[in-house]
Structures are given as structure tokens and as C-alpha cells.
Amino acid sequence: MKQRILTAIVALIIFVPFVIFGGLLFELLVYIMATIGLIELMRMREIGKYSVSSALGILLLWMLMLPSAGFDFISIPEAFFHKSDVIMLVVLLLLSYTVLVKNRFSFDHAGFILLSTIYVGMGFSFLIETRNYIDDGLATIVYVFLVIWATDTGAYFFGRAFGKKKLWPKISPNKTVEGAIGGVILACIVAVIFHVFSPIQHHSMLVMVLVTVLASIFGQIGDLVESAFKRHYGVKDSGDILPGHGGILDRFDSMLFVLPVLHFIGFV
């Protein structure tokens, strides 16, 4: 527990200033985290991080994360750069690679890399887009992380106090339905308090509560998806870069679901 607390404090001291100031340094930090997250997934699948296939995956990851508005120091015209074109190019290269190595790298490996890269790359790209390229970006990021943390906290304490019915025992044996509901309730309470002191884009309180319920549910789904990955590949944590907490994906699994959903519904 002491190690977890110490790691959390150090991580926040490093991460929070980047979030507050935003800009290029924040984008570079997110690129680094996303790259580590993708490597963690490929390591689960026993794909070498120095292989040709992983290099293609990382290249695709970086291209997918390019903000549509362009970096502060570069602007890529939409007519010149289409993310769908890059995805198709990498698909062709990965499939060609399966032939070159005579199926030591298989179709299954290629599919895993593509799905993992889109999942991680697009999820973290929404983090950059939200912070640097929309109005109220900082407030929105703070809101998202408060909802995620409140959901985790509420699920833990409600689950311990009232948990009886298992939520998904084959994937995460300790999670309960009561805990999941408690996570949503605490997330809504925290969101209401946050909205009173820092309203986001003039959304009404009702909208904030409804969006928070959705965000809390999808945050828990994101956490379960990461748990399913680890259970399927027989690993305890996605990585060990954060002592006591695991890897990057262990800490950002909920965010990778929440931010895209908020963009899809037009909240961000």
C-alpha cells in the first residue's frame, strides 16, 4: 500500500503540470505513454518490441495520434493526410510481412497489432484533442479523471460494504454489481460538485448527470476489457513501469473508453 501511494504521488507530481500547461510538451508526454501502452499489449502477445511488426504498429500509432488540427509546430493538410490511408498501408505491409517470414508472424499477429494500435492510438489521441484543441479542455480533462477515480473509489468501497452479486467473475472475480452501482453513484456526486464550481461549456446539471452515468459505465467496461486481456494472456499487470500500480494501460484503461464515448455523443 505504501508503494502504491508513493507511486501515485510521484506520478501525479509529474503528470499534473503537463496537463495544466498543455501544449507541445503535453502532446509529447501522451505520445510516450501511448507508445509504452502499445508495447505492453504486444508484450502480452509475445511480439518483440524490436521486431519489424512492432515498428509498423508504433508508426501507425504515432500517425493515428496526429491531431486533426496539427501540432503547434506542424500542420498537415487534410488533402495530404488521411488516417484511413495510413491504416490501409500498414495492413498491406503487415500482411506482406506474414509472407516474407513464412507465417512465423501470422494473420492473427497482424490482426492483434492493428486492433491494439487503433484501441490505444485513438484513445490517447482523444486525450490530446480534448486538452489542446477544444474550449474548456483543461476542465473537461479534470472532469473525466475525477469521474474515473470516483468510479473506482465508489466501486471499491461499495463493493466491500454491500457487494454480494459478482459482476463478471471469470474476468474480474472481486468486482460486484453493487460495487459497480456504487461507483456510478459516487461519480455522479463528484460530477455535480465539480459542475457547481467549474461548469463545462454551459451544460445543464441534468446533462452532466446523464453524461456522468454513461462515462462511469464505460469507464468500468474499459477496466473489464483490460482485465480480460490480462486474464487471457496470463499476466498480472500490463507492465511494471508504475510500481504497485502496474503499467500504463492499467492506469489509463478506463480513459481509453471514456474519452472516445464523450466525443461520440458530442459532449466534447
UniProtKB/TrEMBL annotation:
Main location: membrane
Keywords: Cell membrane, Lipid biosynthesis, Lipid metabolism, Membrane, Nucleotidyltransferase, Phospholipid biosynthesis, Phospholipid metabolism, Transferase, Transmembrane, Transmembrane helix
Single annotated GO MF: phosphatidate cytidylyltransferase activity
TM segment ranges: 6-34, 55-74, 80-100, 112-128, 140-158, 179-197, 203-221
Pfam families: CTP_transf_1 (PF01148)
Reactions accelerated catalytically: a 1,2-diacyl-sn-glycero-3-phosphate + CTP + H(+) = a CDP-1,2-diacyl-sn-glycerol + diphosphate
Superkingdom as given in the UniProt entry: Bacteria
Pathway annotation from the record: Lipid metabolism; Phospholipid metabolism; CDP-diacylglycerol biosynthesis; CDP-diacylglycerol from sn-glycerol 3-phosphate: step 3/3
Keyword DNA-binding: no
One GO BP annotation of this record: CDP-diacylglycerol biosynthetic process
Name the record gives this protein: Phosphatidate cytidylyltransferase
